[in-house]
């Protein structure tokens, strides 16, 4: 149980970190906002290992055009125009909008749930492994108190995950 708690803690922290670092793009807080007009796509690999990358012309909202083809990791039809944030340091584009922000909020909520549930699992493993003495009862009482404090947090993160997931799914289905 302690190992499972540690894995949940690390996976939750990793997911939260990735989503927090990229949410600025979908909110248009980082990168250069503009439109990507897809001019072609290429697929590398075969079967489940296939990865499609599309290229196109990026025109920023201020009118600046990037001279070379800009990559976008995903399959799109040629001629498609989509709002993106171009990140020059990564030479990549990120989709923007409610659907893409909702997915990142969902990732943050799920990641935080794992990050908080991991230490609870570790504490439960320690409480179970402790000798049957008065110390074990004190640890069990402490664990119940911690659980009582964290329960509202888990409920709030669950509601946040549900709402952001539903919003991003609905907007993705309605716009693509």
Head-to-tail CA distance between termini: 42 Å
Find the count of extended strands (DSSP E, 2+ residues): 5
Write down the Rg.
22 Å
Contiguous uncertain segments of 5+ residues: none
H and E order: HEEEEEHH
Biggest sheet character? 5 strands, antiparallel
> Approximately how much helix is present in the residues?
55-70%
Structural class: alpha+beta
Can you describe this structure in just a few lines?
Helix content is 56%, strand content 22%. The protein is an alpha+beta fold and 176 residues long.
Give me the secondary-structure topology.
Layout lengths: L1 H25 L5 E13 L6 E10 L9 E4 L7 E7 L4 E4 L2 H32 L4 H42 L1
Antiparallel strand pairs: 1-2, 1-4, 2-3, 4-5
Helix pairs in contact: 1-2, 2-3
Q: How would you describe this structure to a colleague?
A:
Strand 4 and strand 5 form a beta hairpin. 56% of the residues lie in helices and 22% in strands. It is elongated. It contains 3 helices and 5 strands. With 176 residues, it is of the alpha+beta class.
What keywords describe this structure?
5 strands; alpha+beta; five-stranded antiparallel sheet; 176 residues
């Amino acid at each position: 149980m302690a190992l499972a708690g540690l894995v949940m803690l690390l996976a939750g922290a990793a997911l939260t970190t990735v989503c927090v670092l990229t949410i600025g793009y979908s909110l248009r807080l980082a990168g250069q906002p503009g439109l990507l007009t897809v001019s072609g796509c290429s697929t590398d690999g075969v079967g489940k290992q296939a990865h499609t990358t599309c290229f196109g012309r990026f025109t920023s909202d201020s009118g600046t055009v990037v001279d070379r083809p800009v990559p976008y990791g995903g399959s799109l039809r040629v001629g498609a125009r989509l709002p993106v944030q171009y990140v020059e340091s990564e030479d990549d584009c990120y989709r923007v909008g409610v659907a893409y922000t909702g997915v990142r909020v969902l990732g943050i909520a799920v990641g935080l749930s794992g990050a908080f549930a991991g230490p609870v699992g570790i504490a439960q493993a320690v409480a179970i492994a402790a000798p049957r003495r008065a110390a074990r009862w004190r640890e069990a009482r402490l664990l119940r108190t911690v659980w009582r404090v964290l329960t509202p947090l888990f409920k709030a993160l669950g509601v946040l995950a549900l709402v952001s997931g539903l919003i991003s799914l609905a907007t993705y289905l309605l716009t693509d």
